[in-house]
Amino acid sequence: MATKIDEEQLMNDMLCRVKAVNNMPHDIRATLLDFKVDGYKVGKVRPGIAEMLCNMKTSVFELKQEDDSKKKSYLTLTSDAGTSSEERTKAVGTVMNQLRDEGFVKGWRDELFPVSENFYSPPVFLMERAAVTVLGVLEYGVHINGIVQESRQDEPKMWIGRRSATKSKFPGMLDHIVAGGQPSGISLIDNVVKECEEEAGIEESIVRAGVQSVGAISYENWDPKSDKLTRAVQFTYDLYLPPDFEPKPVDGEVQGFMLWTMDQVKESMAMDYADPIKPNCYVVIIDYLIRTGQISPDSNGFLDILRELRSGDCQ
Amino acid sequence: MATKIDEEQLMNDMLCRVKAVNNMPHDIRATLLDFKVDGYKVGKVRPGIAEMLCNMKTSVFELKQEDDSKKKSYLTLTSDAGTSSEERTKAVGTVMNQLRDEGFVKGWRDELFPVSENFYSPPVFLMERAAVTVLGVLEYGVHINGIVQESRQDEPKMWIGRRSATKSKFPGMLDHIVAGGQPSGISLIDNVVKECEEEAGIEESIVRAGVQSVGAISYENWDPKSDKLTRAVQFTYDLYLPPDFEPKPVDGEVQGFMLWTMDQVKESMAMDYADPIKPNCYVVIIDYLIRTGQISPDSNGFLDILRELRSGDCQ
């Protein structure tokens, strides 16, 4: 089934796949303003968006000058937004509702997402998940590589899911066996267990026996059309599944699964591949290929891919 | 033998261990000049070192202005250095010999190291290995985690070597089972095989059966005493060894080996640990602990360590 893969072409394709997700040109990065609450950096915005937010009727945003000699501006909340998480959640929500009504925020999910200084800190407020790219707030999620490999000597295979045709984002596209956003109030590993059960019918005992945390990947993307910033950290897991186990769609997010060889995974990297995987999955899969010796560091381009993978470190 | 390890303390210690090797303050980074040959960036230097090099009697160095509007300077070779790799090797060698005679370059090894735009490009010249920190040239090496773990369910153990008391650098200190610089003209994997045989008596068939490339780590260090820059990329490998195999010192670089549990590895991270491992090994080991799920991403500080690990990406 698999055709011989040209190594040089594969390295180029992988670099393109990373750049497609992790796309923040230097000149755009230089213009970004911090979005701060209580002095903590909690997001990043382009100047045009900051201005738009400050000029809205219902605005609770204002620009202030940094204290240092550089006199750079930063975006923050006005005192009208209140000082508690609850007050700010409500105040920012009013602004985001307006942006939804104006069509600037699409795909509203009615799901509140925590905004905080870092992943382990309590949130300074919550905001609608679909609107976080307006403020360049860092999104956290879990991505699971579903692997079948009985011993290290065996060639691993990877489970690939197909998203439901009714999903609001990337309908019908190929995907990881399981992936999901990280809600507040639940540990990462408990979220992994929960998502595995809900999305792929993998029971808890199988997950806990076969799962291993393997790090995190991060990426930052600037969308030239909307000027919004996607900034994400995906905690990554390898889940080793028994060879006789088959994942099953449970909650309707996925319509089916198939088990791919590493050659099939590599073939799908080609930029003209007819039925590609969801873009951010490629970054997680490339990290897997590197970590597990499926790509040789002797191949020209290996370090370029590694560097690009690590460039969007999302502080 | 192992005492219970405090998770919070461990995360702090690991962060300190990474920072100890990957130490490039922002204000120092901002002052660095590129060292260019034929328009390629091949190193970085502090302004004081650049000035010293240009003012030496035998100098073949000069400062030039960047073409762009920022008018920043860069260090390059004069036309007196010639245009071929051979001529430049000789010209730069004369300068480095003088710096050795003046005591500025220590630990001379009579080993020529390739200077190139990137790892996969042919060298623009060669220079004495002990002198590469003068020009902030990127050094490449291989580091091997020697692992005993029969199946994924087993707790892994790691072989730790003790360096010979007569080594010029870090004599008598704990070390990886095998590590070494990457010479030109040999592939990384062949170098791994060669070093494993020479340093630890691991025969080729055992290496090839158990070795897996797992990526690379990089670090940049500024030495405030000498103003020199250490910049390195270490290609990393996990070598799974049979449980009944014992590494043996062969070439006298190592005096002995011991097999540690992961608890012992983690205990040795403490900044006041009496008999620590060679500093750059900690960075490779922390990467191993993260990749193999020995540290939970639910632990506060996990992302700080990951970010710090990836900050010295050594372009």
Automatic annotation (TrEMBL), chains A, B:
PANTHER family: THIAMIN PYROPHOSPHOKINASE, THIAMIN PYROPHOSPHOKINASE 1. This is Nudix hydrolase domain-containing protein. GO terms for molecular function: 8-oxo-dGDP phosphatase activity. It holds the Pfam family DUF4743. It comes from Cylindrotheca closterium. Residues 127-283 form the Nudix hydrolase domain.
